[in-house]
Amino acid sequence: MQKLVIIVSLFIAFCSRAQLREQKVREVSVQAQRQDERRIELNSSKIDRKTIQELQPEDLGVLMQKFPGVALKSYGGLGGLKTFSVRSLGSQHTATVLDGFLLQNAQVGQLNLGQIPTNSIECVRLGTSNYQTLSPVSALFGGNELAITTFEGSTSFNSRKIRVSSKYGSFGQFDDYLAFQYAKEKIGITVHGKYRRAEGNYPFRLKVLNYTYDGIQKNNQLEELHSGATLFFRPNSMKQAIRLIYRNTFIDQGLPGATVLYNSYNKQYLNTTQQSFSADWTDKWGLAKVRYYGTYQNDKQIYTDSFYLNQAHLLRKVYKQNNGSLGFSISKNKFGELLTFYGGIEERYAQLNIGSQNSIVPERWQTYANAGLKVNEKKFLLDIRLGYQFVLERDSVGLSFNQRNLFAPALNLESREIGRINWKAGVFLASTSRLPSFNELYYSQVGNKQLKPEEAKQVVLSNGISKSFKKWFFTSKIQIYYNNITNKILAIPTKNLFVWSIQNIGTVHASGVDFVQSVQIQLNENWNTSLMANYSFQRSIDRSSSISPSYGHQIAYTPEHTANIDLSIYNRNSLFRLPNQTNDDKPVAHTILDNEKMDNFIFTYIPRGCELLDNVEEEQEEVNNISDNIIDCNYNFCNNLTKTDYIKSLCDLLYFDRFNN
Asked: What is the pTM of this model?
């Protein structure tokens, strides 16, 4: 029966058709892609909207697995917490920029990618280099930069655009998105909304020695609403647009807990409300460009547990967070585009209020300043910059101030394409740091007020080639890196497995290789195929103390091997794509069960979309069918983990019983 289901699913996926008025759209896009790929970007990778539509990821976390060197930590399926690390550097070392504004969460120090939808994303770019000299100043202090551009953040005058998508899946999932943009010569507005919900009663299997338990995990329900509006206008046609962006997010979800002694009557919920307002304007001063920007964000989280073991049988915690920033970036060209001077100043403020009596209300002020120079020569590109960060922190209990002075120098040197194979080489050097989050400093007995900033020194050597031959087009890129991380911040057991605390563990040496390969072949006049693959090897070794049990071993939750292979076959009207993602076993701090495993599953969903662009009747309707994990390898790296938060099925899941009855 299972083989029949797999064959039918693959057949439907292959036969899915897109109805396009312009029949040569697919062919034109391939040619444009080839022209872009001839210019290899050594220190960055990107995923455009076309690829996102083909992959249909449920959130940004799933999409991040397509980047080389990325290790995703997924604590659940639809709506579950998803964080990532790049080349053994935690996500706190990566600056996430949404439509030109830095996203920040001072409470936990990292973003939940599972709560960032992909319906509106136009492009995602990840790398170490400085893409735009007018980026937020604070974004240049991360070891990496994740730049996201969306439909809501775009400004297009004299146009009308409508974007609609609707997805339906098993376990009661609905995912609907609507956005509308209307603009005249000097002013325009964009409004958008997204609603998603799911029941999430996932089947699971728990194996302990010779005992096997098959059950349904409950309290997994999810309901979320994203909405907002963007107003953009310009004084005249020669000026850049002024943008005013408002976003609102509401999420209500259940927290199922672990499968070890799983209790289906758990009633733990997390309610999240987030509002943000951003504004920017880019002006010209002669040959210089100046961008003024500011953001304000208010977050509120309410955690409730109606089965808590206290007298009231209820636990309710309220966390309120305020973040704000003001700054400007400046860029000036000299001698045409041969030299570019850039810099800027930014001020950020963050505050956390736990909402209980006599609670700690930590505050943090950060001042960023940077200056850089780009040399755009015919044979090479040089980018050198120096950043300075002044940090002032206050603990409301003792009203004590803590000052920090941090520096962030960086250098990027790349050659131009050389020879017929368009060979290109480069080197990237940087020294960055990340501050402890409020949770790491102050959370209950786990927090540690004596934590030092985690510092990282990076060295990346890059090499790439691109070559076209008749109907073949070939690109290849390899990067070798070494990161020396000091004062690594980790949660470790201090007394026993039940008493943990946040500590600076000392020194970690991280080294590895990222390999990216792309091949495109035009089979005949109608059919094309492409193969995109990446492989990453990373060794992240604890070098703190020779008497430590973890000395000389891989850091917890960091896989040594990750790989991704996507095979596509398409013509003007049809597309068949076979994506594959794999990881090896991740070491963990301790293992309770050695044989916990989730069985195979196959999931299917059908998205539908319609798009009207620039007053042109260009309508597109797509039907997709996806079968996942048909070779039973997708979740093998989770065998030694003890929480189903790590091994729950993904969104849009259609589970087929494979309990070997």
From this structure: 0.82
Q: State phi, psi for 350 to the nearest 5 degrees.
A: -140, 140
pLDDT for res 311: 63
Residues in a beta bridge with 224: 196, 251
| Host H or E run for residue 13 | helix 2-15
Q: Are 570 and 576 spatial neighbours (Cβ–Cβ below 8 Å)?
A: yes
Which residue shows structure tokens 């009855």?
661
Q: Strand 144-150 vs strand 94-98: parallel, antiparallel, or unpaired?
A: parallel
Residues in Cβ contact with 285 at an 8 Å cutoff, skipping those fewer than 6 apart? none
d(CA 249, CA 228): 9
**In the chain, which residues have pLDDT < 50?**
1-37, 258-260, 588-620, 627-661
Tokens of 456: 């990282």
Contact between residue 94 and residue 145 where contact means Cβ atoms under 8 Å apart: yes
Helix (H, G, I), strand (E, B) or coil at 543: coil
Q: What is the distance between the alpha carbons of residues 661 and 227, in angstroms, rounded to a whole number?
A: 46
Write out the two tokens for 342: 């850039």
Of residues 349, 529, 364, 346, the one with CA closest to residue 441: 364
What CA–CA distances, in Å, run from 282 to 233, 234, 273, 287, 331?
12, 10, 31, 13, 11
How distant, in Å, are the alpha carbons of 131, 133, 245 from that of 334? 19, 14, 33
Please give the structure tokens belonging to residue 83.
Answer: 């964080």
- The structure tokens listed for 646 are 């790590």
Contact 572, 23 (CB under 8 A): yes
Return the residue matching tokens 């967070």: 321
- The whole-number pLDDT of residue 39 equals 66
Check residue 615 and give its pLDDT: 40
- Strands (E) located in 104-158: 121-127, 144-150
Nearest to 199 by CA among 222, 176, 167, 224: 222
Complete edge-to-edge strand list for the sheet that includes strand 94-98: 44-48, 121-127, 144-150, 94-98, 101-103
Place of tokens 């020779």: 546
